[in-house]
Records
---
Amino acid sequence: MPEKKSISIAELLKNPQVKKATGNINPELIERREYIPPMCDVFSKPYTALQDNTDFKFNVDREAAKQLPDIIDNKVQTVIGVDFPEKSFKKIYHKKRNIGILFSGGPAPGGHNVIAGLYDAAKKANPESRIYGFLLGPDGLIENEATELTDGLMDAYRNMGGFSMIKTGRTKIDTKEKMSLSKETCKKLELDAIVIVGGDDSNTNAAFLAQEMFEAGIQVIGVPKTIDGDIQVSDANDNVLCAMSFGFHTAARAFANSISNLCIDSSSDVKYWHICKVMGRVASHPALEVALQTHANITLIGEDLADYTDRNRIEKAKIKKAIDYNAYGITLRHLSRVICNGILRRAAAGKNYGVIVIPEGVLEFINEIQVFIIKLNTIIAEYNEMHDMDFHSDFPLLDNKLEYLRRLARFSREDGSFSIWNTRDDDLFNDIPGFFQEGLLMERDSHGNFPFSQVETDKVIMGLVTDYLNILKEKGTYKIGIERSYYRKVLEKEGMNPDYFGHVLFKNYGDVKFLLIKESIISMKTLKQTLVKKGAIGQDEKIPDSVKKIYRKSVPNFKTQTHFYGYDGRGNDPTRFDCIYTYNLGLTVFSLIANGSTGRMAAIKNLEMDFSKWEPIGIPIAPLMHLEERKGKLSLVLEKSVVDINSTAFKAVKGLREKWLAATPGEDNFRRPGPIRFTGKSEEDRPITLVLNAIGDI
Ligand code: FBP
């Protein structure tokens, strides 16, 4: 062998080939950064103006009108292109502006392109304009931590995922002090406008800031971001103004790609049920999209479960001329039965494997859990207010928290008027596993949201499923179906008569493809008893090996692998849809600012349609707000949109459930969405949910 020249590591790292192979830059990255998203038609004009659109009406909440008087009457504004505006218009449009932008809440793919769109439009209108990125979210505005964006910085982040350019945070600007510090920052940077790229809570923040800054003439514009897909805006007459927040498509596609790979693995190795928890806080939009993208065997949709009614209970109560309130809404126990039913049916068709998709917020839709969440929110909020202390600092351990709850339960016995936590609540709460108690008692975020992503929802549900499957196994109803031809082959190999043993062993030895061992046979002992009783073997004879083999094959071994899809999809580089959507949102933001708008959210109408029909608009935020329980109190927030069980997308999933469960002999019906491709042909260029919902009622 020729002797190898030894070189030092320092020298090795200087080698151009090694440098290229280990560098951060790759062709995909270069291609992404260089991509220029197409612009909506109006933006091809030299100027854009705004037109108030009075066709869209909202049911305004009285509290919103009281708290947000200066922006409550805002109308929807449509961005229109202008070729030859008047001189005075031009002067305002080209004015040098200072604009601050911040990300708020969880990252969502496409955020950098919102900034890019705003940056490009603002610089085009006046190259002297300055765009500041506030660092780490709202904290950057409060503490005046900002960086001025430059061409170089911007170009490094075009079409890239994450919010890493300026980072994000979840601080709520909810005190007078934070408000006045924010105002001070605006003064110091001489800001004309602030842009808040965020979810429902952050746009709520944007509305309050817009109100607060109204007199000072500082404009505040929101941008609908969240992978949860729960910012979808319609007016009071169901006219869709914003069909989907940005980031949803990419995250759901990324989840779908990984889950589809699991579908393939599970149907190859045929031994695991993969349990996939999918992010989305409360609403099940991402889970619904994943179902459409992958055709996983079972997908739970929280909103559908909440709508569940137990017909048996209703009928029984009717006979007694009574109403059974427990018949409405699903319980955890019942949910586990629904899942078990699917597992059992697939097992009977010989499929001891599959994929289950569970939305992370599904527990919010389960009666008993929702009650606990609300009660605990109230208890924690009241404790903090009464003692001017922090519940979680005062009771750091689970045992301390449980002891406090026990004290409340004892107190409720002494004082009948205290009803928030009684001994029954305490007993029920003590019945649930410790890890889940801990989850339910976890600290809420600054907006009062329950931290669903940190609760092991899948573990809670699958714990019950496993317990129930064990009961069914003992009852003899949970069995793996044995393929008839295989059964015949095994018995004939040992010289046994398959037809003779078939009637003894199976409960369905007719003309079916998959045979099910009788329910009474649940062990080698009961197998022998049955064979002896039916005269197939004598008391002192051994069970034939082939029969033993068949029996063993029929015993299910329920093995699971759990997965959580959330942060990974949230950090994915945006799909082309999200790149184009967000760049145009950025351009819309500038149009709103240049035309004096405030208290509005930039949006694209007709997103569910072909790109040529996209219409940039400004949606007034204040009329979208309503009162909601947060941290035990009613607060004014932007209304979240959950999955509409009457939508075409949901109805399609419901209609295809049975097919995707595939509890029949033969292949599964999985769909392979494939990885997110930036270039090349991609079958669907927008979320399937949008495509279906755009079809409307059929
Ligand atoms: P936003 O609503 O701020 O976009 O956040 C969405 C989300 O990713 C949820 O899906 C998830 O429940 C939550 O953030 C996770 O929060 P955290 O990033 O604090 O762990």
---
Amino acid sequence: MKMQKNIAVILGDGIGPEVTEAAVKVLEAVQEVTANLKLNLLYGEAGYHCIAEHGTNLPEETIALIKRSDACLKGPMTTPETPGAPVSVAVTLRRMFNLYANVRPCRSFPSVEALKPNLDFVIVRENTEGLYSGVEYELAPGVGVALRIITREASLRIAEFAFKLAEKRRKHLTYVHKGNILRITDGIFKDAVKAVAKKHPSVEVDDLHVDAAAMQLIKKPETFDVIVTTNLFGDILSDEAAQVTGGLGLAAGANIGDSYGMFEPVHGSAPKYTGQNRVNPIAIIMASAMMLDHLGEKNAASKIAKAVTEVLSEGRVKTADLGDSATTTDMANAIAAKI
Ligand code: NAD
């Protein structure tokens, strides 16, 4: 008997709808060829475009729909930058559902230009605090303060997640911080990682200041296996790593908690490409594969990853970011057909 999985699907803003519909096409293809896979897609609204109608970018009905689902596939959204405007939907959902681990695989793909061949590492970013706490004040005109909240509890939790991942991989973990300047906050983070390291003696551990890590990602990206870091550093380093391994159009991310997961591309809503059917949908397609893997559908997940690899290796369908003129739809169709 097929066990149905309820998937909350949020299309988002900008290029969000185009890439998310492409991922849905691929999920439908994999469902057709996978015995016992039954996905029930529940569409919800969220993002910048909701603000005018609902007064919020995350309507209550969407939160209720997410609560009824087993996982969420989320398109990118536009976040307004004026003080007092609704905060990022991604940040709100990460905190609301305690999705404390942001997992961003950084892999080179066949026939895709990358800085070096055969790269394979993962950035694990703390996802609930740090400079994303959203606590900011203007103390006096022209004098602003943002609170970088780092707790031992959240640092221990993300370190444990990262060490467990490293144990399943090449058993090497690099923790990234700026402890020479942020002595208290990153002191707490460093101490937590060192405490967790004692429970995982098979993992080789080293550390880097974030500026040195940014350099090392360009100079010797092949030396990394698992990188664990705080929220903003992880955000910045994972865009850099995406470019090192082939570009934002390919980079997928998972937001994982103890009882729920939300899956999205690393990239944002790229407003200037909205509606042009030209961006690469592979990032969110790979995010949908991570979602199936998280739901225990490993066979279906690997069918998607294999189809993506095959389409890229053949090199016949390439979107603009990969150097040719295939459309978002062409890429989705090629991957779905391969499945
Ligand atoms: P972005 O990631 O949207 O785009 C940066 C550039 O990356 C684009 O101009 C484009 O050249 C390239 N790019 C992105 N996605 C691509 C794809 N699928 N295929 C090919 N090329 C691609 O970053 P931004 O311009 O800084 O942000 C735009 C908006 O997205 C902002 O409002 C930001 O807040 C939001 N954002 C949302 C999320 C999220 O929803 N999780 C994440 C990042 C940014």
---
Amino acid sequence: MNKKWWKEAVVYQIYWRSFFDSDGDGYGDLRGVIKKLDYVKKLGVDVIWLNPFYQSPDRDNGYDISDYYGIMEKAGDMAAFDELIHEIHQRGMKVIMDLVVNHTSDQHPWFMESRSSQNNSKRDWYIWKDPKDGREPNNWRSYFAPSCWEWDKATGQYYYHSFAVEQPDLNWENPELRQEIYKMMRFWLDKGIDGFRMDVINLLAKKEDLSDAENPYNISYLANNPGIHDYLKEMHREVLQHYDVMTVGEIPFVSPEEGLLYVDESRNELNTLFHFQVADEMPVLDMLRFKEIQTSWHEGLKQKGWNSQFLNNHDHTRQVTRYGNDGQYRIQSAKLLAAMIHTLPGTPYIYQGEEIGMTGVRFDSINDYNDIAMKNKYNEEVAKGRDPEEVFESILLLSRDNSRTPMQWSSSSQAGFTAGEPWIKVNPNFKEINAKAALEDSDSVYYFYQKLIELRKQNEVMVYGDYKDLLPDDEHLYVYTRSYNDVTWLIVLNHDDEQQRFTFNGFNNRKLILTNYKRDFEENEEVLHPHEARIYKIN
Ligand code: GLC
């Protein structure tokens, strides 16, 4: 496998609006990120991924863009951005930006022109269809709405939106539009960014056959349609190949076989991807299925393409709440999940706050939430006559706001995030869980991440090593090896709230490198405490 910087990197995701507010308006901002760069650097990460800060009416927290060349006022201005990339590079880190080109805001001038009349020159930049029998062209749903079609009374056609009504999809069949996007990508790359996280990039091509879906709730018809690989190859040829950059595609609804088509190094499309087999299938952890997924992706991409490892981000509930134990064993569990992400094959992603073991949140009322996906779902279900309390309860665990509450910097007012009123409430547990406390405790989750990242830097086996699951049928213990040249590492993880036993048959010559418990092995090394994680080197 070719060695590449982005394979060896650890990425830290900054959801800037919830990171640090430098001017007291209640929103995090780019200057706030600059203020906290030393904190990020100290962790040891190599790359920062910034969520979108382009100009936007902000209906979907920046994923509804009205000007690709402008900066949202809440985030700052172009001078702040230029300073930010300079400061990141100064510290020897790189920065990747969100690229959101499946859709724009309905306030983007392109869409305003497009909807102005059927024969406007930009009509074809979006997807317009005539009604069928006086209604929507078909029964397809969108991610955030009951239909992916929105009626435009003035011009008598429907437009297509994979997400909210305010996010019309661009028509990638139009070559002029594609060139305009490539030009915009070059603009940011020429400013010196080091790559893109590409928002729902496998949705660009649309299905031509508009017949009704058998089950409209399975919205996989929105993705992976014919033509998608031609667009990505063209994007690579026209733009990406001219820069030494990293690209990671957000690619829902793919198996390893389909995923490989996006990241196979010989195909010149993307470097790596986020697939959603774990996130989509598991509201809570299913260890056996999780292992199957890891093995199938490892085997599927082996020697050909590169994976990514993440368990949460701004769209997915915090990992220690969703997949671990955020109560009695929060610290051990947060460390175990960290050990797993950093030792499985693929580039690891840390979502801000994960490194101090931040948890999901539970507010009292729907009015305390902001997430457009959650709110639209709530309104849709309540409109059907369902009990509002029951609907509320049912959507809490996966609400995207679980991971969007402000970064907890200290135990002072608003967790030290803002001097004003935060745009979304702070998680009430900030007095106990915060970065200041973590930095003062040498045994904290933060320093465990720091050690893992350092280990990964110094040991290629963690990056390039082959992967083998030793206990595919065990529901609690996850035990695997990574091997590279003549080096073998053994990773032993007990995900359970109870003790578990592992006999080290065949691994007699082992040396413990890292663990999340202070252990005296004269007790019994075969017994693993609840949420204990160990990394061994085998001689
Ligand atoms: C991606 C983003 C999500 C956004 C959606 C629409 O899934 O991660 O936050 O709402 O795309 O752009």
---
Amino acid sequence: MDIDILTLFPQMFQGPFSTGIFERAIDHGLVSINLHNIRDYTYDKHHTADDYAYGGGAGMILKPEPIFEALESIEMDVKLEAGDMPIILLTPQGRLFSQPIAYELSKYSRLILICGHYEGVDGRVAEHLVTDEISIGDYVLSGGELAAMVVVDAVVRLLPGVLGSEASLQDDSHVAGLLEYPQYTRPAVYREWSVPEVLLSGNHAQVSKWRREQAIQRTLERRPELLDKASLSLEERRLVERLLTSPLDK
Ligand code: 6GU
């Protein structure tokens, strides 16, 4: 997958993209990330990328020209893929990012991300350039860069070959619409706290059943609204009813 990121702060991406799964994925040629400095597409003496808001109000607005020109300069080499290439603006006004959206984006061979900044981005960018607007949550960040890193991380780890074992993706929180069950590793007893016995039993059916129940209970306690959309069997729906009156042991 090729990912182009338009930003005023390309240096912010150096740390995250040179460690962990990114480093491996990039080294193995599974993903290629190209950073483009929006300021390189300004032509006045001071390289001005922002300006006052028409109509007044506090804060500066990212100008349209450098963004359109940055995009056009990279689109030159991607003309062939045009039409089927998301151009995503990271903005608190976007649709709320989620695991299904990460899956959706992981299917493309190329993504373009534009990081908003200051008080906002000139409206013509959203109206005439981008194909999608994404927010990573209901809070305000000072810029779209951290949000772009979140989106790229969630997408890249889904690409075939990036994670060690593909099976681990199936158990992730939010994949089946549930939070993930608790996990333990050695030692079996630490400071007198024991790992749940069923996990040491070697009985795979029992382990699966316990994990599923824990996932359901945890989701019910922490994010009950997720259960409305989760795919649960009839028996599991009955379990939810029972848990509402008497929770399982932890
Ligand atoms: Cl994508 N950008 C900014 N500036 N703030 C955010 C966000 C994005 N998502 C949540 N908050």
